[in-house]
Each structure stands twice: as structure tokens, then as C-alpha cells.
């Protein structure tokens, strides 16, 4: 069987050194739409956007942790772990959660430890949870969990796992913003390390069951966090403590994200949809915890 659950869960963690610099951070920020904020006049030179794009003012959006120094995000690296041997065309990113222990520096070197934290049997699919823990000389920086959905690989009788579904937010959102996706957004975002051809190659996308290449789920993830930080947290990236979501649907380059926000005590509930497809769900069960 392509997935050997016992072997995967028993595998020793993989540890390696990662590093990043201000250019990596700037490229990531541009890939998630920095300097293109439609809510701002002349966004490319707006001081609030320059914090994402100009090295002398640079701060780091916490979702950068999903690409920092790895060159290969959880969806790809998780498939190279022992006991996992599957066709990339059958793989989807099911969800992502991130805990920030300290603000991420604009440049750094750290140790990343990867392991398969869980493997769930959904009968018609398998869900793999790849955990990445990152620390530098001063201590822990972040913990990242990627939930990887592998179609056609369930049915071995394993644990079905917990339900990730949350009760929907109550009432109308307090804030709603829209963020356009450029036609070349996926091509720019993939330069931060996710080279999956699903996001660039039309033929590969068709084999995977899509009409054309789709946007990276983690690009939508980053765009959404940036919208929350800019809209409700005063642009202060250091206030973010954790951020989790479930990928509920795809986004195609050229579409528009509608990001609805329900702020509470230390949390923001978020729902994201695709405007042009009658508000088709994109991100669900999304929560940002903050100070």
C-alpha cells in the first residue's frame, strides 16, 4: 500500500538548518499581494505597505513561517517522509495551523524539526499531519502543522481523527474586505518555494481534476492574515499568536477574495470566499488569536 501508517508514525524526526533573509521576506510579501492593497491610495508607496516591501522598515508577517528557508512547504516535504509514497496529482492541502512563539526576524538561521504528528483514515482518503518545529539560538520561534489530504489512500482501518469543523460565526461580520488575485499571482508566489505544477501547468491541473491551474492554498492563507492584521490589528504583525484554517475550496488566479471578519476577545473569526463564483467557500474554520 502506498501509505504505511505504522512506518510513517514511527519514523525518526528529520532535523536540518534553515535560513532566510530580507529578500526572501520581501518576495513572500509581494507574492501575497503586498503593495497592491486596493483600500489604500498609491499602495506601492503607502507607508503601511512599505513595512512589507522595504528592507529598512521590514517586518515579517507570521505566515512567512510556512515558506521560511525550506524551499519546500509541508505539502511537498511531507510526501517524502518514510512510509509515504503517493501520486502528487492526488494530493490537496487540507488545512494549516501556526503557533508563533516569538516575532520572526527579517533574517535568521534556525533548526527545523519535521515529523508526522498524525495520520488519519478517512476511508476514501488519508489525512497526514506534518509538524514542523523551528527554533534558533534564543529558543522556539514557531510550530507549523500542515494537514495533507491524499485522495484514494484511506481504508486501512486507522483512526478517523477529530473533526476540524467549528460552529459558524454568529451574526453579520464586523468587517469585510475584498482582495483581487492577479492573473500571475501563483507564478509569483511559487518563487517562495512551492513548485507544485498544479499551480502553473495547465495539463497537470487537468490531470488533477481542475479546469486550469489553481492558486496555492498557502497564498490565500497569507493574503487573509495580512488583511486581518492590516484591518483589525493596526498593522502590527507581532500581535499574532496563532492562526489556523481549513481549505474549503480552490481559488483561480484572476478571481477576487471576499474576506469576512468577526472580531472577539483576543480572537478574530474569518471566512473567505470567491466573489465571482457566488461566494464559493475558500477558507473555513479560520481563527486568528492575538494580543
TrEMBL record:
UniProt record similarity statement: Belongs to the enoyl-CoA hydratase/isomerase family.
Lineage: Bacteria, Bacillati, Actinomycetota, Actinomycetes, Kitasatosporales
GO process terms (BP): fatty acid beta-oxidation
GO MF term set: (3S)-3-hydroxyacyl-CoA dehydrogenase (NAD+) activity; 17-beta-hydroxysteroid dehydrogenase (NAD+) activity; enoyl-CoA hydratase activity
Domain (MaoC-like): residue spans on this chain: 170-265
Domain Peroxisomal multifunctional enzyme type 2-like N-terminal stretches: 20-152
Protein name: MaoC/PaaZ C-terminal domain-containing protein
UniProt-listed PANTHER family: ENOYL-COA HYDRATASE CHSH3 (PTHR13078:SF59), PEROXISOMAL MULTIFUNCTIONAL ENZYME TYPE 2-RELATED (PTHR13078)
Superkingdom field: Bacteria
Protein source organism: Streptomyces sp. R11
SUPFAM superfamilies per record: Thioesterase/thiol ester dehydrase-isomerase
InterPro entries: HotDog_dom_sf, MaoC-like_dom, MFE-2_N
Pfam families the UniProt entry points to: MaoC_dehydratas, MFE-2_hydrat-2_N
Amino acid at each position: 500500500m502506498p501509505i504505511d501508517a505504522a512506518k510513517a508514525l514511527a519514523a525518526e524526526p528529520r532535523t536540518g538548518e534553515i535560513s532566510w533573509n530580507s529578500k526572501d521576506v520581501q518576495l513572500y510579501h509581494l507574492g501575497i499581494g503586498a503593495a497592491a492593497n486596493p483600500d489604500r491610495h498609491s499602495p506601492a508607496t503607502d507607508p503601511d505597505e512599505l513595512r512589507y516591501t522595504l528592507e529598512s522598515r521590514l517586518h515579517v508577517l507570521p505566515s512567512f513561517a510556512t515558506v521560511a528557508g525550506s524551499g519546500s512547504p509541508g505539502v511537498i516535504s511531507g510526501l517524502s517522509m518514510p512510509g509515504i509514497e503517493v501520486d502528487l496529482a492526488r494530493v490537496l492541502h487540507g488545512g494549516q495551523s501556526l503557533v508563533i512563539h516569538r516575532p520572526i526576524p527579517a533574517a535568521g538561521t534556525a533548526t527545523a524539526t519535521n515529523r508526522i504528528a498524525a495520520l488519519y483514515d478517512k476511508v476514501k482518503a488519508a489525512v497526514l499531519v506534518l509538524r514542523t518545529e523551528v527554533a534558533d539560538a534564543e529558543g522556539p520561534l514557531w510550530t507549523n502543522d500542515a494537514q495533507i489530504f491524499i485522495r484514494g489512500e484511506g481504508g486501512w482501518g486507522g483512526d478517523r481523527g477529530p473533526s476540524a469543523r467549528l460552529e459558524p460565526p454568529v451574526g453579520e461580520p464586523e468587517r469585510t474586505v475584498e482582495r483581487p488575485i492577479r492573473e500571475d499571482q501563483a507564478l509569483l508566489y511559487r518563487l517562495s518555494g512551492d513548485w507544485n505544477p498544479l499551480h502553473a501547468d495547465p495539463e497537470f491541473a487537468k490531470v488533477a481534476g481542475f479546469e486550469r491551474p489553481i492558486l496555492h492554498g498557502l497564498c490565500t492563507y497569507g493574503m487573509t492574515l495580512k488583511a486581518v492584521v492590516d484591518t483589525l490589528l493596526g498593522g502590527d504583525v507581532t500581535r499574532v499568536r496563532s492562526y489556523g484554517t481549513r481549505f474549503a475550496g480552490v481559488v483561480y488566479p484572476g478571481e477576487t477574495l471576499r474576506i469576512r471578519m468577526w472580531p472577539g476577545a483576543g480572537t478574530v473569526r474569518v471566512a473567505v470566499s470567491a466573489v465571482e463564483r457566488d461566494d464559493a467557500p475558500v477558507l473555513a474554520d479560520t481563527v486568528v488569536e492575538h494580543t
